[in-house]
Write the structure tokens for this entry.
Amino acid sequence: MNEFIDCHCHIFNIVDIPLYATIQGKLNVNTINRFTKSLGITLFAPFNLIKKGDDIVATKEDFIRFFERDLKDSIIKFEEHLSKIPEIDLSKTLITPLIMDFDCIKEVEENSLGISNLEFQTQRLIKGIKASKNKIKICPFIGFDLRKLVLDDNGLDAIKKLWKKYSDSSNKNASINNLISGSILGIKIYPPIGFNPYPVKKNKRKKYIEFYKWCIKEDIPITVHCQKGSYSAELSSKDINRMTHPQNWLNLLEENPQLKNLRINFAHFGGEDGVEDMLDPGRIFSDGIDKNTWTYTIIKLLQRYPNTYSDISAYNYGKSFGKINDYSKNLKKVIELDYLKKFKEGKYSVSSKLLWGSDVPMVISEECYDSSYANYYKHLENLVNKSKKLNQNDKRKFIENLTVNNPKKFLKIK
């Protein structure tokens, strides 16, 4: 394996986070909250941090420094981590960092450029990419808050203009080597920030569908957050989960057959908790599969529609207190069930739709990251190689599909 694609990662720093909204409680940054709790601190309690001592802080150094680094330096650091994976050729490696659209939360600050925070953030990242002079290709996904379609009569035109300005038509069907680094390759949407991608109100629904039709026409890949938790707006967990649930997408595609070719990645595959919930040994008449779960709904989408995918970014390959199995065994079980054709929701196999993603930096503070990207990726290889139900060729093919072939299909590159 020489080529390698990470479909889900982030490159940003503290400047890009709506810090004031977070302090006010309007935005819950779950990853950072978990991290600070592990240290026993709050965001503005440096004295408590000092009292914890240098040792515990040192274990989180890479995560902390990510947020203070210049974007160029984070990119260089990212490439250094990738270089530790012996199987990959950096010149044939692509990462697609996802940009968050905080415009509906973060107050627009006056600047000489007279542009939105989203565009400012996009420009900063592109500048960092070009300044880093790296070997890997970096093609971001630009964020888009769907509420803009309703809040602004020109909302759709606005994202069209951004797409035209920052994408590059020559990327279509290009090889990794020929991609234009710094050009945007797709769109990231994030429902937990406060919107349902398939709203009940007809006027909203109509405008959202117009956006999806445009994405199909331009063959733009979309990545959508599809896991409980992480960044979320000032809403109850019940409302956030309702907005984020993959059932919204199943309803959208079932009720609007003209959207069947929507090119979309349901990020995180429901998360390790979603996979855990789906695997129920007590369901002996359904191969131990609970079909009324978050991850199984994603499987329905993957098997029924041609351009649907799901990355396994931020997956926790360790164990969690109170869970039946360790998370690695759970994911291995899903892969094995797919190869045994136990998922029967459509003609596409699940393994032909899964994508590799890391979710750096959000995963850096997790124990399973094990201090480096290469170690985190090794967890995935190990769980596949431990399978006794896949032969060696199946194992090799699964890894190659996950990290190269499936991402290429999703991104429309060759």
The chain is about 45% helix and 10% strand.
